[in-house]
């Protein structure tokens, strides 16, 4: 009987070994298939003939800030700029002769404390609108650690007694000490930043250099166009930020010079009755992929914007209202440190 049991166990062990061997080889084959497919798709995206796919993917990495290195593994800076126009946009080299006509804006709701909230769901993204009826309530604020690190949008909003806020302008993504890139400190604004009449950033030390920007005058009228610091001061602008892209000027949709892909987006606009629109679009998630600049422009136009610009997006995109962040920032740790906000008291 004992011999029979040993033979049975021996047969069972051999069967188990065969099963394990099959599972092992099946697993290795599956791993090979996954790696082969990933490598093949990557090569097709970056080196294949599908230019629009390449533009979309490269733009998503380049506009992500922290993950630009992925695109740079495969393409040179010149190749990336030819595809996306990213460097030209960052350096203010995408220009338009158009400027907003403030005489077309008639502020109708001064001393109106109303702010309305709207959520827009599309097949690709979830968007949040705040409509501030009185535009004279809208200002620009900046990090109290300027030159060292940024602050999260909600902290700056609370520091300034804001009811509503969105993140503001772009920044150099590098550490204060040593200049290490992709550290995300948010302490060094790029381009123009003016707050309460004080020039915080003068476009790299050149107050006469023009860059696509928006500004707000004391009577609540929003200027949009290519401006220098001195232009904005001469126009009596007290609060201003350089923008990522001009979307609408005098009701006319602007040509988007920069390839953007799909990403979280922040934008600001103004209707002809003076109301200010804050817009935040979630992205980089299964439930909300994100939007292109063209989609942001169209959404702003559908909501009555006469002038509108896109601000810093990606993981910076944050909307604050009544003490809470009401959108879903895409950064894994929550709100990202940024240099500036646009807010309403």
From TrEMBL:
<keyword id="KW-1133">Transmembrane helix</keyword>
<dbReference type="Pfam" id="PF09992">
    <property type="entry name" value="NAGPA"/>
</dbReference>
<feature type="domain" description="Phosphodiester glycosidase">
    <location>
        <begin position="160"/>
        <end position="343"/>
    </location>
</feature>
<feature type="transmembrane region" description="Helical">
    <location>
        <begin position="27"/>
        <end position="50"/>
    </location>
</feature>
<protein>
    <submittedName>
        <fullName>Exopolysaccharide biosynthesis protein</fullName>
    </submittedName>
</protein>
<keyword id="KW-0472">Membrane</keyword>
<dbReference type="InterPro" id="IPR018711">
    <property type="entry name" value="NAGPA"/>
</dbReference>
<keyword id="KW-0812">Transmembrane</keyword>
């Amino acid at each position: 009987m004992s011999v029979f049991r040993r033979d049975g166990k021996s047969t069972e062990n051999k069967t188990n070994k065969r099963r394990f061997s099959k599972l092992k080889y099946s697993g290795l084959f599956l791993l090979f298939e996954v790696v082969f497919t990933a490598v093949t798709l990557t090569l097709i995206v970056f080196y294949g003939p599908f230019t629009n796919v390449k533009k979309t993917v490269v733009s998503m990495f380049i506009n992500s800030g922290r993950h630009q290195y992925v695109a740079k593994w495969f393409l040179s800076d010149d190749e990336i700029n030819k595809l996306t126009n990213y460097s030209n946009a960052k350096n203010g080299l995408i220009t338009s002769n158009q400027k907003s006509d403030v005489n077309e804006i008639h502020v109708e709701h001064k001393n109106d404390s109303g702010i309305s909230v709207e959520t827009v769901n599309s097949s690709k993204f979830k968007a949040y609108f705040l409509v501030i009826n009185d535009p004279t309530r809208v200002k620009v604020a900046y990090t109290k650690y300027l030159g060292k690190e940024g602050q999260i949008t909600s902290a700056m909003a609370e520091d300034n007694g804001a009811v509503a806020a969105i993140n503001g302008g772009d920044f150099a993504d590098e550490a204060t000490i040593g200049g290490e890139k992709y550290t995300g400190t948010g302490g060094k604004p790029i381009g123009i930043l003016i707050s309460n009449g004080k020039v915080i950033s003068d476009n790299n030390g050149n107050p006469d250099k023009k860059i696509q920007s928006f500004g707000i005058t004391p009577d609540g009228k929003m200027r949009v166009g290519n401006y220098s610091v001195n232009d904005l001061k001469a126009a009596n602008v007290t609060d201003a930020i350089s923008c990522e892209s001009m979307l609408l000027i005098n009701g006319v949709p602007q040509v988007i010079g920069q390839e953007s892909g799909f990403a979280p987006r922040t934008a600001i606009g103004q209707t002809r009755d003076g109301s200010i629109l804050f817009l935040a679009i979630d992205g980089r998630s299964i439930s909300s992929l994100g939007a292109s600049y063209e989609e942001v422009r169209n959404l702003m136009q559908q909501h009555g914007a006469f002038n509108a610009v896109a601000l810093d997006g990606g993981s910076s995109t944050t909307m604050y209202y009544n003490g809470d962040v009401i959108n879903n920032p895409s950064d894994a740790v929550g709100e990202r440190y940024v240099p500036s906000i646009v807010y309403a008291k």
